[in-house]
């Protein structure tokens, strides 16, 4: 390859997927880290002196996130403390292996690690849920439970922020998905770099503008240890379509990813559109747009032998629950997410 475009005197070893610049390794690291730093400072993501839980799956995004945050904290004196928070969904041959990677990250980056499991929080592992529901709708359970589990973990650790490794591709995919579904409520909030989990601990996305391809390159050239196997259960089909579409568009012009994010950020929801109002779940207290939150409904279905209960339309679900004696979410087993003492 030719000379580094930054004229540092080194040979370029890569072409940046985001900008097309030909860079040497050091200049790429510098550019990547400076952009994440810019994202953090522009959005005032963290207050100095705070504690941040990094949601760590062992995958490339959260591994790079933990590593870069540590670098930037030292370089720019953010005065932050970090912890790793992992959710063990109970997926044999996938999460058990990736958690070993997270433990390695814990040692390498000197960040304390907390692991919470679905089994302890909800009484079910994903392996058990899949044996009930099959492979078709299992992502619904996993996504809903993980979101709540991360919030519970952040509360348990008493951190000031929860940082996730969502990258630019993830956000652009979500914008596309919400447009395709006509989901205005989600469309209006999916590009936010800071979101409120409902329990007062903000969720932040420092890699919001980092391209997935660059995250992989950064991890590769830094020789970071991460887990790259796909989940053994079926992927979310709808997101899969948005993903394929985005990858095709990226081939035509990589800046399409940023353009989609910026378009999503600029969208204003028409005031006449009906938006759900948020309240607290009457069972577990978690923030929800319905009387009973999605996690409690899914759990109700599992515990009452009707695992598809939470999969359909919410109006049908409500009717079905009202027709049943549903005073106890977990059938009295004491393992449902109404039991806050579990964490
Ligand atoms: N089991 C988990 N425990 C803790 N955090 C998680 C877990 N799964 C996902 N996350 C968080 O949510 C983010 C987005 O998750 P997603 O499932 O989209 O994974 P991904 O894009 O493959 O990211 P990664 O490469 O970090 O696994 C992750 O970067 C991580 O911060």
UniProtKB/TrEMBL annotation:
Organism of provenance: Cryptolaemus montrouzieri
Domain Cytoplasmic tRNA 2-thiolation protein 1 C-terminal: 279-309
Pathway in which this enzyme or protein is active: tRNA modification; 5-methoxycarbonylmethyl-2-thiouridine-tRNA biosynthesis
Cross-referenced InterPro entries: CTU1-like_ATP-bd (IPR056369), CTU1_C (IPR032442), Ncs6/Tuc1/Ctu1 (IPR000541), Rossmann-like_a/b/a_fold (IPR014729), TilS/TtcA_N (IPR011063), tRNA_thiolation_TtcA_Ctu1 (IPR035107), UPF0021_CS (IPR020554)
Major place of residence: cytoplasm
Keywords, alphabetical: ATP-binding, Cytoplasm, Nucleotide-binding, RNA-binding, Transferase, tRNA processing, tRNA-binding
Lineage: Eukaryota, Metazoa, Ecdysozoa, Arthropoda, Hexapoda
GO cellular component: cytoplasm
EC number(s) recorded for this UniProt protein: 2.7.7.-
Keyword ATP-binding among record annotations: yes
Functional description taken from the UniProt entry: Plays a central role in 2-thiolation of mcm(5)S(2)U at tRNA wobble positions of tRNA(Lys), tRNA(Glu) and tRNA(Gln). Directly binds tRNAs and probably acts by catalyzing adenylation of tRNAs, an intermediate required for 2-thiolation. It is unclear whether it acts as a sulfurtransferase that transfers sulfur from thiocarboxylated URM1 onto the uridine of tRNAs at wobble position.
Annotated protein name in UniProt: Cytoplasmic tRNA 2-thiolation protein 1
GO BP terms: protein urmylation; tRNA thio-modification; tRNA wobble uridine modification
One Pfam family linked to the record: zn-ribbon_14
Binding positions (ATP): 55-57, 61, 87, 165, 170
